[in-house]
Structures are given as structure tokens and as C-alpha cells.
Amino acid sequence: MIVLLVVYAKKVDWEEVWKVIRDYNRVALLSAVGLVVVSYLIYGCYDLLARFYCGHKLAKRQVMLVSFICYAFNLTLSTWVGGIGMRYRLYSRLGLPGSTITRIFSLSITTNWLGYILLAGIIFTAGVVELPDHWYVAQTTLRILGIGLLMIIAVYLWFCAFAKHRHMTIKGQKLVLPSWKFALTQMLISSVNWMVMGAIIWLLLGQSVNYFFVLGVLLVSSIAGVIVHIPAGIGVLEAVFIALLAGEHTSKGSIIAALLAYRVLYYFIPLLLALICYLLLESQAKKLRAKNEAAM
Hints:
With 296 residues, the chain is an all-alpha fold. It contains 11 helices and 2 strands.
């Protein structure tokens, strides 16, 4: 993917890229910033759901702060650093046991991918994403994948609604299957978050491409990023967007400009803020832990 990006980058008119960035509509840019805030708040709801699921008593504002820090680090430095390592570090510093933190992480990542699976299933099955000829995946294969994803959602909901054995133990950690209503809530919240992320890129592209097509390309690039396993998906996001959008839909320069702006707004600025929040939280952790333990 990196090689592919380099090949495309050599063909990009970088003067056009900087011109697009300089000429961004202020309303669209501010709207994108607002949606970034909305997305991070929605992601915080994943850990609030986990708070309800686990029954722990950490203050909601502490949960939202930890979630923000972890998400920002997760996006840029990988799941192992942000999603797992940072969560264990911060939640344990605030007084939660390891078993509870494992359940929080498990539910958070499940929530995120349930929304993805639902949206991708609908969009891939509907044929919204038009794949180029001779691409890595055929259009028919993508539709079949979409149907398979929807079947996963149906099976998960069936188990949540009708399974008699609702407890399972994985590597010594006890997990409880949620109710079907809880599962639907997970899907709804996560789906909205993925749609907001797609809307950010759509705004930065100047709304020149069908929104659902942009969302579909984002979903394709996200799973490609997981497979390639590069921190922040650097190169993967750009390569997929250029391959699927450049040409009749919009110019390469506009795509690169939009994705550069997206990375700054959604990845790098939140990461800087998260680093500051992390240092502040670490400095107050002992005091907050004592307060939490007294409240419990």
C-alpha cells in the first residue's frame, strides 16, 4: 500500500493540493471540526456503555476523559498502545481491577466493530461502492462480503435475544452476553460514529461526491488498514481513496487535500490534546483513585 501511495503521490499536482487547502470553505471547515468533536463524544459513549455493562462506579467525566485519551492514542499509535495499554494504565490508576478493564476494552472494541459490520453490510450489499475493473476485490465479491456481514449481525442479535447460556470464560475472564436491546444500542451508537467520520471526509471533499460512496470507501479503507496493520493506517487510507475516487469522481489533488485535513483534524490535533490530558490525569491519578475508592 505504501508503494502504491508513493506511485500515486508522484502523479499528484501538489500545487493543486495546497490551493484546495488554502481555498477551503470556512463553514465546511468549521462544520468538520464540529463533527470531529461529535465523533469523539460518541466514542466516549462506548466506554459509558461499558460502565453500565460492568457496573463500575467511576465518574462519567473520568470515563469520557479516559476514552478520549485512549481513542486519540489508538488512532495514531495502534490498538495495542491506545486501546489496550493506555486503558489498562489509566483505568487501573483510577482504581479499577484488571478483570473489569478487560471487560471494558472487550465491549468497547465490540461496539466499534458491530457498527462497522452493520454499515458495511448494508453498503456493500447495496453496491454503493463502485470498484474499478481488475481491482483487488471484484464487485460481486464485495456484495457477497456484505451479505456475510449482515448474517453476522443477525446471528449476534439472535444469540443476544435467545441464548440460554449467557456466560462465557475466555482466558480466565468472565464475559456476559448482553441483551438484544443493549446490542442494538451498541450498533446504533457505533454506526452513527462511522457515519460522522464519513461526513467529515465528505465535507472536506467539498461535497462533490455522493456521501454514501465516500462512507463506503472509508469502510473499505478501514478494514484494509486493519489487515495491513500500519499505525494510523498511514498510506492505506490515501491509497484506497485515490484508487476508488480519483478520476471521474474528483481529482487526486482534492482527495489528498481532504485526507491531509482529515488527518490533522481527526488524528493529530486530538493526539496533542490527549497528550496534555494524559499528563494532567497522571498528575491527579492518586487523588482521584483515593476519591473513587472512598465512593465505592
